[in-house]
Amino acid sequence: MAKSYDAKDIKVLEGLDAVRLRPGMYIGTTGIKGLHHILWEIVDNCIDEISNGHGNKIDVKIHVDGSISVEDNGRGIPVDVHPTLGISGVEVVFTQLHAGGKFDSDNYTYSGGLHGVGASVTNALSRWLVVEVYKKGTTFKMEFESRDVDGKIKGGETKYHLIDTGQATKKSGTFVRFMPDDRIFETVNFNLETITRRLKELAFLNRGMTITLTDERVTINNAPLSREYYYEGGIVDFVRFLNETKSSLFADPILLTGKKDNITMEVAFQYTDAYTENIVSYVNNIPTGEGGTHETGLKAALTKVLNDLAKKMGYLKEKDPALMGEDFREGLTAVLAVKMQNVQFEGQTKTKLGNPEARVAIETLFGQELQNFFIDQKNKPIADAIFKKAIMASKVREAVRKEKEIARQKNSIENFNLVGKLSSCTSKKPELNELFIVEGDSAGGTAKQARDRYFQAILPLRGKPLNAEKKRIDQVLLNEEIRTIISALGCGIGEDYNKEDLNYHKVIILSDADQDGAHIRAILLTFLFRYMKDLINEGHVYIGMPPLYKVSKKDTIEYAYDEKELAAVKERLGRGCNVTRYKGLGEMNASQLKETTMDPSKRALIRVSIEDAAAAENLISVLMGDAIDPRKRYIIEHANFNKTDKFKEVMG
Ligand code: TTJ
């Protein structure tokens, strides 16, 4: 039976004024993040109500005047009068700090940690706020406003107390509309994409909820922009969404759930042929970007249970060494959603779960459920796929380890053999030095003639061994050219990467403007992304840009890097000019290559940047993966490095 709940249950801890005085104490910042925070304070109430089994729909609307409204179809905030405060439940919720059912663990099962400062904070920081409660066949209404009281601007003042408007309705629920105060916030411009992302996430995390978003500031075909999110599968659909651009190893994500010591766990996961892990975790719908105890428990159970099963089911022999956790997480996409009380956040951004009991509960629950899942014979094909992948990952790991060892030895003795193909430069100043990685021996030869041997080194890539479709990264790593790159750069790979040892501060990839060239470039970037991420992050990696066209007229020769430039050059030179399209680097002679591509005063380079690791991983998996459609899409959108983001180096 549901517990009775009315205005007297709402705990009152302190008054409101402090909020306007120190907004940062309550919402972190008065920037764009804080602005959205006061929206999430409202939305959280609706999520709580629906999670407790009352209602199934939330509608968020951004209005033309810049205000925003949120409506649910729950039971409606209590309208009866609070016995000691003598005001309605609605008035309590919006005027008393820390008031709200969520802090009463009898009526509300979980309390949030990130938000949870209460709707009164939203009210205090608004120009005005309107509430309607639909209940008992009628519409209740109350308004709040910001007001000048004795020369002091106050927020969340009662404009009029709760009234029964007499407006009949069959609806049940709560509607709140507010105007954030532009004297508090640096900006009051709600961001459509920020709100979209969070509402979609909430819809994934709360299976069966319908969440709509309307932005009346934006019209499409005379109708306001509107979006709707509803996921029957909840976090299973979330995993599907995360894996959309990847090739999964089995059709449907696995869902495992459980409850222990008042901690509930929901995990959905699926493996793809990618090499990275993607674990997304939440506590009480709050993202835990830095992970924490719940994730630790999940990983520990995954490693332990799968290792046990690997031996029991015969994927590993009794004497084989156990696989490592990372082997079982290669290609893993997982969403972990935990619900618990008294959440403690830690870490730099306070997005890391600290509660030790969460580790224990999740390790136990996930371990049990995972074991049960694989005991079921009909899941054998899934086990086959996972263990095959993990065993392959362990072999790659072993190969990488050996490779590092070899590289280390070579470094300590002499790396004469390995860098044999490298034409090094004479300067010993890494910050000046440039390494050109050039596709093909013949272009490499031309580049050698074209370079300034004082600071430009040339490493020709034969290309062939790299050129096969779908090379695994371990094979790439064993490739002799790649090994040459590693020893030429001198900075080590993976955890051994040390920027102090880097021999060249510009690493310039020079490949043909065709499919093969694009592929070699993608493989090199994949390699650098995975094993020398900081090299990219610190801006050392560049793509060289040979021109696509030569335009000549009598003694004049000009170059164009794309169609637009070609048109401009043709116009400048006028009638009777001769255009040739370069098919590859090999068609240029040394002086042409120097002039167009290598001479710092004339060339153009594209600096390879990683906006963030996630985007880069996507780029890599799109370019390297098996999922044909996303790859095609990607190439169509971003195909030609030569056309986009070109910049001329600024000469010092
Ligand atoms: C209803 O009665 C039982 C305990 O929960 C009560 C309640 O307050 N439910 C509730 C609050 N549903 N929705 C809200 C709510 C909705 C919005 C849009 C804003 C606020 C502050 C609360």
Main sheet: strand order: 5-4-3-6-2-1-7-8
Give the ligands present.
ligand TTJ
Mean pLDDT across residues: 85
Query: What does the largest sheet look like?
Result: 8 strands, mixed
Beta-strand content estimate:
15-25%
Shape: globular
Report the radius of gyration as a whole number of Å: 31 Å
Low-confidence regions? 1-14, 99-115, 412-418, 464-471, 612-620, 622-652
Count of extended strands: 24
Question: Level of helix content?
Answer: 25-40%
Number of helical runs? 20
Description:
- Strand 1 (57-62) and strand 2 (68-72) form a beta hairpin.
- By secondary structure, this protein is an alpha+beta fold.
- It starts with 17 loop residues before the first helix and ends with a strand.
- Helix 8 (293-312) runs parallel beside helix 10 (356-375) and helix 15 crosses helix 19 (613-624).
- An 8-stranded mixed beta sheet has the order 5-4-3-6-2-1-7-8. A 6-stranded mixed beta sheet has the order 17-16-18-19-23-24, with helices on both faces. Strands 9-10-13-11-12 form a 5-stranded mixed beta sheet.
- The chain binds ligand TTJ.
- Ligand TTJ binds at residues 5, 42, 45-46, 49, 70, 72, 74-78, 93, 101, 107, 119, 174, 176.
